[in-house]
Amino acid sequence: MEPLHFLTLGELASRFERRAISPLEVTQHMLERIDALDGTLHSYVTVLPESALEEARKAEVEIGRGGWRGPLHGIPVAVKDLCATKDVRTTSGTRVYRDWLPDHDACVIEKLRAAGAVLLGKLAMTEGASSEHHPDVVPPLNPWDVGRWTGVSSSGSGVATAAGLCFAALGSDTGGSIRCPSACCGLVGLKPTYGLISCYGVFPLAPSLDHVGPMTRSTVDAAHMLQSLAGYDARDPASLRGPVPDYLGSIEDGIRGVRIGIDESYIRPGTDPEVLDALLRALDVLSDRGAVVVEFTMPALDEVLEDFSNLSYPESVLSHASTYPERADEYGPALRAQLDAGAEVSGVVHARAVLRRRRFSAELSTCFDHVDLIACPGFQTPAPPLSALPHQVDDPCWQDLIKFTAPYDYSGSPTLSVPSGFSSGGLPLSLQLVARHREESLLLRAGHAFEAATDWHRCHPPEPSG
To answer: Which of 107, 136, 206, 210 could form a disulfide with 200 if both were Cys (CB 3.0 to 4.6 A apart)?
Structure first.
């Protein structure tokens, strides 16, 4: 049997409904586990034992009286520390905001509270959601191998969820920071359609690219989270109007006849052979479940990948305008270099990047005239050694790291990353699926169909020493 801390949201909710265990017992168990293990893993910035226990008691009473709110009711979760939490410090991984106590909750926090979730705490992240952690911050460690990358910037979200220190987490994604940590830590990561989940109250990196989404241990859990988080919010100018589908209602419908596109000239160059083999085996599994694998041509990416800094860096300058350069001495070298570089991007260069982004997004949209989903790796290698990561913001290696993720931030397309196997060194591998805008239901159906035929999502890292 699965240990308590690795149960899915549905399994835990079922036990709550049957009174087999209480939210208070589970929350206490998770707090004790965090206390015992997170001194090694460093996934949390702030743990909230008093308020978490109070929320768990409230959920226990409500469920006991028949007031069950849904699958997140009484479930202990955690959020990336750029989601504003009223009267609870929200650091965004920085020293500048190390003591900031917001006077409001982010929309996603409001929605988690409305669903009855128990907030265990705030999770570590890179500085301002950029490429590196602030030098004063002890970075989270990958529970599969502490010498390997966790995948920025939602590093704490990936580590805590994989290690069983929360049942689900929220991450954010501007160039890949839901999917890279999910791939490196062996999780399901869902980057929704741009605007489907409100970013109100979420500290921005590059607002035209920023997404918020769930990181979980199964596709069904991601669907539960999305169901509670999606929906229009007038406070976010990018928020999408329209009804929220019943994501759980269709998740068992299967994928017979679904066309999954693959472009080998896109997925092969620079991709680790073990990642590629796992991807091709995953496509065989999906084909056995009734999907039709077809060839298509991915739009050209060279210019688009080169444009990432010219798109995102100027926006990050605006995001930090109230504190940078006035308080530059409190910034770490990576984010400082990013902001300085962003300030130097000319209007012409930025305009060209915007136009290229629009062209790429239009070309990608036409691909879905011929396919229903696009398949590619979640990340092109197993989690790389920490020593191999680039440290300069202008290092071309960053283009390789975001090859399979950033294009879908440009286009705002929904993507799902799911565990697809392990390397010979015992590191998680990942399959990524991409869909048309607002077709999260199809993504979740495909991810669930894959999980129904495999057990990769049921694999957990070794227990860390406390």
So the answer is: 107
pLDDT level of residue 397 (50, 70, 90 thresholds): confident
Verify cis geometry, omega within 30 degrees of 0, for the bond prior to 299.
no
- Please give the Cα distance from 276 to 270 (Å, whole number): 10
**Could you give the domains of the chain?**
4-458 (3.90.1300.10)
Instruction: Measure the CA–CA gap between 247 and 184, rounded to whole angstroms.
Output: 26
Can you give the pLDDT at residue 466?
58
Which pair of structure tokens corresponds to residue 169?
């987490």
- Cα 84-218-138 angle, rounded to 5 deg: 45
Under 8 Å between Cβ of 197 and 112: no
Closest CA to 120 of 194, 230, 191, 38: 38
Distances (CA, A) of 241 to 119, 193, 235, 256, 278: 28, 12, 12, 30, 38
Chain centroid offset of residue 143 CA: 17
Per the CB < 8 A criterion, the answer to whether 216 and 225 are in contact is yes
How far is the C-alpha of 367 from the C-alpha of 299, rounded, in Å? 8
Q: What is the value of pTM for the model shown? A: 0.97
Check if the beta carbon of residue 44 is closer than 8 Å to that of residue 87: no
Nearest to 422 by CA among 386, 459, 374: 459
